[in-house]
Design a protein that fits this description.
about 260 residues, alpha/beta, six-stranded mixed sheet, globular
Length: about 260
């Protein structure tokens, strides 16, 4: 089983480091900056970077790719429909790839960008998900290119993974997302409990990630568009009745954009 560690980058990005300790090989996910990865490799002599996984084309996710590839000859995997620098393998929905001896399923999740993909490891004991900027802890990504319906459907696909799926998103947005979740569902005790826990983690300068899918279903308003309290809050914010879960999602996303 791979070990997964976080390399902080910029102000709130995480570059996920996948580690095969037996073979001393590693892969990185969305290296917007090469420096944290190269520093880690320098501090761990004998290790080799074999693969770079990309979820989407934004610079804070791909900015370090070319430098890393030039210095390590790592194979770059990324979405087929986006312009990914130095990409070696173009990936589409439903493909299965093997990274460090571990099988990953490619899931198309348009919304944040049109070609965004996620990587899912369907381990029966401990599944995990690399979801970029689509699903965040207690939130979701902005709609820079896609439609509310596309993002809603993408989130539903990810939410279909098992309860114990570990969620490795790429930004430390959890506390700000929970503040919004509390505004949407002020009576949700799971949100209150999670807010206390994450506040303690961040005050101790610890990561709030990975999250877990059952926690997201209980506390993430963007996965709770069918819940009456969420529908009521979104309708009140919009000034009228919303006739579908997609309309509720669109209202929530527009609200979060200005929250």
């Amino acid at each position: 089983m791979l070990k997964i560690e976080a390399l902080p980058a910029f102000t709130d990005n995480y570059i996920w480091l996948l580690l095969d300790e037996a073979a001393q090989r590693c892969a990185v996910v969305d290296p917007g900056d090469a420096t944290p990865v190269l520093n880690w490799l320098h501090d761990h002599p004998g290790w080799r970077l074999s693969d770079i996984l990309i979820t989407h084309h934004h610079h804070d996710h791909v900015g370090g790719v070319e430098r890393l590839k030039a210095q390590t000859a790592a194979c770059v995997h990324g979405p087929a429909t986006e312009n990914i620098p130095a990409r070696d393998e173009a990936l589409s929905d439903g493909q299965r790839i093997e990274i460090l001896g571990t099988a990953l399923q490619v899931i198309a999740v348009p919304g944040h960008t049109l070609g965004h993909i996620a990587y899912f490891h369907a381990d029966p004991v401990q599944p995990w998900l690399l979801c970029g900027d689509t699903l965040f802890a207690a939130g979701c990504g902005r709609l820079f290119e896609g439609t509310p319906e596309q993002m809603f459907r993408s989130l539903q696909r990810l939410a279909d993974t098992p309860d114990n799926t570990l969620i490795y998103c790429t930004h430390e947005y959890t506390l700000s997302n929970l503040r919004f979740a509390r505004a949407v569902e002020p009576g949700n005790p799971a949100i209150e409990k999670r807010t206390r826990e994450v506040t303690e983690l961040r005050e101790a300068n610890r990561f709030s990630l990975p999250s877990r899918m059952d926690i997201e279903r209980a506390t993430n308003p963007f996965l709770r568009c069918a819940v009456a309290a969420v529908q009521h809050a979104a309708s009140e914010r919009s000034g009228g009745r919303l006739d579908s879960d997609v309309a509720v999602f669109a209202a929530l996303r527009a609200w979060k954009d200005v929250f």
